[in-house]
Amino acid sequence: MLQTIIDVQRDIYLAFAGHIKTFAQDGNWGALAAFLPMGIVFGAVHAMTPGHSKSVLATYLAGSSAGLGRSLIVSLALSFTHVAVAVLIALLALPLVSVALGTVGRAPLLEDLSRSLLGAIGLWMVWRALRHAVHAHGDREGVAVGIMAGLIPCPLTLFVMTFAMIRSVPEAGIAFAVAMMAGVAFTLSAVALVTVFFCSQLISLLKSRPKLVAVVTRSVEAVAGAILVAVALHEIL
User: Fold this and answer.
1) What's the pLDDT band for 156 if we cut at 50, 70, 90?
2) E strand or H helix at 203, and its extent?
C-alpha cells in the first residue's frame, strides 16, 4: 500500500515537472490550470504517508472536547501551516536552505520548536486533568495546536517550490502548493473527523454514568497530554 502511494506521488511529481518546464517556456496558464487538480490528489496522497502530524492531531482531539467543527479548524490550521512554511522557506530563504536544513526536506530547528511547543501543550493537558478541572477547549487553543504541529515544513512542497524557482516561475510553484494544501487538508480533516466521531460515540455509550464519563474524559486528556510530551521528548532527544 505504501509503495503504491509512493509510486502515485512520483508519477504526479514527474508530470508536474514537465508542466513547469512547458509553462516556463510559453507561460500558458490554461494548460497549467488544467493540471492543478492533480495537485489536490498529490497533496491528499502525500498526507497519507508517515508524518504530517496525523498521530499528534488524533491524540490532541481524543483528549480534548472538540466537536466536528472545531476538529476541522485544527486540521485546516495544521495543513495551512505545514505547506505555507515550506513556501516561505523557498521564497524568502532559499539561499540559506543549505544552512537551515540539516538534510534535504528537513528543518531541524523548526522540528524542535514544533515538538517543544506541543510538549508544552501536553504538560498543560496533564496538569489540567490532574486538577480535575472541567475545561472547554476553545477555538484559539485548537488553532494554536494546529499551527505548532504544522511548523515542520512539507518536504515535497519545498521540492516543488525549488524546482519552480529554478525555472524562474515561482508563481507556478505557489499555485501547485495551494492545490497540494487542499489535498493535505482533505486527508487531515478525514483523520480529525473520524477521531472525533469515535470519541463522541464512546461518550454517548457512557452517558448513563456521568461520573464515569468525567473520569474517562480526564483520563483520556491526561493520557493524550502524556503522549504529546513523550513524542516531543523522543523527537527532540
Assistant:
1) confident
2) helix 170-205
**Distance between CA 45 and CA 159 in Å, rounded?**
16
Query: Mean pLDDT in the chain?
Result: 77
Q: What is the pLDDT of residue 14?
A: 82
Distance CA 168, CA 166 (A): 5
Which grid coordinates belong to 33? 490550470
Q: Which residue has the cell 464519563?
A: 213
User: 147 and 1 in contact (C-beta within 8 Å)?
Assistant: no
How many CA within 13 A on the CB side of residue 189? 17
**How far is it, in rounded angstroms, from Cα 6 to Cα 39?**
15
The backbone torsions φ and ψ at residue 208, rounded to the nearest 5 degrees and listed phi first, read: -70, -10
Sign of CA dihedral 53, 46, 147, 141: negative
Higher pLDDT among residues 148 and 138, named by residue: 148
Q: Exposed/middle/buried for 110, CB within 10 Å: 0-12, 13-18, 19+?
A: middle
190: pLDDT confidence band, cut at 50, 70 and 90? very high
